[in-house]
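Weekly puzzle thread! Below is a chain. First person to post its structure in token form gets bragging rights.
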Amino acid sequence: MTGCTRCCHRLLHLALFGLLLLLPGCSSVIDSDQARLCRAVAPALHDGAVEIVETQLAPVTNDPVALRYRYRTRSPLGSAPHDLVCRFASASGAGRFDLVAIVADGKTLGEVKLYIMKRWWLAESPQARGDTPFFRLGPRGAYWLQQTLGGLMLMGVYGLVAIGFALVHGLYGRINLAFGEVAVGGGITMLVAVGLAGAVGRIGPAGLAAALVAGMAGAALLSWVIGRTVIQPIVARARSPQPVLIATLAVAIVLAEMFRLTSPFRENWLPALLNRPIYIAGQDGFVATATPAQFLAAGLTLCGISLILGLVRFTGYGRKWRAHADDPQMAALLGVHVPRLAGTTFALAGSCAGLAGVALVVAYGTITPGDGLSMTLKALISAIIGGIGSVPGALLGAALVAGVEIVWSSAFDIAYRDVVIYSLLAAVLILRPGGLLQRAAPSPREF
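Winning reply:
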């Protein structure tokens, strides 16, 4: 087994381990809207003075359209356990909101009572907020905490795509403008995988993890194909970087149009999984909240960035990549297998972009072809500000771009947000052409 192959295996093992660390909290991946409806049923079955304490909410085994809600009631007369099963018309689509049967403590609710429950209780009952935060914090502090939580995932998404730019540019001195659409392709692949898993039954942790891996693998394959069929042949024939820019821009347009034209034929939304809000800090005026899905998305991006930084810094692949980036001819003379290194780099850069697309789907429930251009531009700005060709610089630039974007959107007119970011790019290119880490060459590298 070659050193490059061993590095890929180690990266895969580390990625799977990190994914397992992130998913234990998803022991029962359920639709948050169905969970809200099922929770709202319990108060209607008891007196208003009874306190309801939730003990478990989980899918029903071998029944993809049912949830089991276990709780205890507390009153002056004592405490008692209860078991409630809510069955819905379907696991996805509009039918997931239609409650068709309720089984309370082994007894099925009659049709008349079910109709009254749906018509006059569930339709008008306010959703239980449970908004007691974990920490007390002033409104201003809670507001900025909320913005920080949002910016954390944004930094991870920009950082992953920017790292993809840095990996390919470090190898060839060229920029692949299709990385944003590669990220969209990874997100769409995940949605397709989720749709296939949902057709079999309720989506569980294994199905969600498989969909995440499928999204990354699909993006890695797409990036590898673009690298082998578009970038490498052009680099072999042209010394100027412009042909690669034009060709990859054309690829990005083709992919965006293909995704747009095929969107009516697939499921474009992730089911409402892990979306119950968590109230973190604040007071009555404002409470910073987040969902498990947002935490999972941010964790995925940060774990992915950490793995890539470790791979480039400590593994044999990283040493070969750095050697080729410093002096490609000398690296080849010293035994670096350049075609294998290039193929691995294209796939690795694609998996970074795919992870960014997957994280967007997890956090927001969907991804659209129009997202590709925005990701490409913001990530490219991040890579250039950090020093194009530097992997740590790409992360540093992403943190700066995401920070400026969040702060400006929060404190000033959001309409001028992009003006400020592009002005920041111009200022960096004028004052520090090599980027923050001075890794970019003062003129395009010619290989």
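Puzzle host: Confirmed. Bonus trivia for everyone else. The mean pLDDT is 83.
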